[in-house]
Specification:
By secondary structure, the chain is an alpha/beta fold. The chain has helices spanning about 5-15, 30-35, 55-70, 75-90, 100-115, 130-135, 155-160, 185-195, 245-255, 265-275, 280-300, 325-335, 360-375, and strands spanning about 45, 95-100, 120-125, 140-145, 165-175, 200, 225-230, 240-245, 305, 315-320, 335, 340-345, 345-355. Helices cover about 45% and strands about 20% of the residues. The structure holds pyridoxal-5'-phosphate (PLP).
Amino acid sequence: MNERRIGWLKMLLEEARSLNKYDVGVTSERLARKLGVDPSSILKLNSNENLFVPLDFLRSLLKEVVDEVDPRFYPRDERVELEEALAKHLNVDHDQIVLGSGSDQIIELIVHAFLRRGDIVLSIAPTFAIYERATRTGGARYVPVPLREDFSLDVERMLRSVEIERARVLFICSPNNPTANQFPREAVREIVEGFNGLVVLDETYADFARYSTIDLTEEYENLIVLRTFSKVFGIAGLRLGYAVSSVDISSILRERFQMPYAVSSIALRMGIKLLRNVDFIKGRIETLREERAILIRRLKEIDGVQPFSSETNFVLMNLSSVSSDEAYRRLLNRGIIVRNIGRVLNLENCIRVTVAPRPMMERFIKSLRGIIETCV
Ligand SMILES: Cc1ncc(COP(=O)(O)O)c(C=O)c1O
């Protein structure tokens, strides 16, 4: 390669490398190999997947899908069918829906559609790391506004932020990851009313909480609500998410920015089948809520563990007698993968754990208790 090309390439790579890495954590297979155990014995509690939806149930639906799908064709009819089924389920117009390969991909799509180099994006802190990553990837500037110490949304501070007039997009996650609380509907409304740009309200966990703000998309033209099949329906591996907004916004996203075949026929067909089984899924969510309450109660009994209340399928907890690094490492050694969050506002050592069926939670609680007892 000539020197000019080497220099150019170096600059391109350096600029791209300046973005933060998104670490999805160790894989179960890799950890199992390291520990010399069977992968099925690894407890994966770091990505808020939904283990309350039985694998047998999902596999039997998937088998039906496999028998019905003709993979030689691009997905077309199934996309329309899923949009219509979702519209009915959510009580919105099907034109308001944009499907994507997970809500992650829709976040990227929004950035791609509405942000230009140097633009400003407002958000909260702490929150889901992908907003910052997508913003920075798009060359825009990310400005986080901290939550209050009790994890509540500081609407006034947000709307008084010096960047508010120039910001084009504002991300809010409610219920928020990692703090697990849902912000009051009125607070969301105040933000949507007080902000001139687009408000993206990520409701990935809303099915585990008290309410949804999807209905507000009919009232406010600057609101986009994000939802996903990953958590509530238990199909994180198939990648299926969607946005609900005004028809103006959704048609721009769908017709001008989304790739025409962004979601596979398999995922689309699974989505249709899962919506037909929504009552069964609702039952599983009820069980999850009950198990979440039990988990929090049990964690409160351990000295040195302060779990926070949750309106999601995960629980955030602060550790006072062991660092989160140490707890994370020791849990890994026992074949349990949690999310090492570290600092959350003024709390030093936090970990986040997915709520899973009882036997798994028993194993997690026993291990955490053991670790804490040997550390004090
Ligand atoms: C707040 C939040 N938004 C979006 C996502 C991504 O969901 P999906 O699987 O639909 O891409 C996650 C995943 O953990 C999340 O926590």
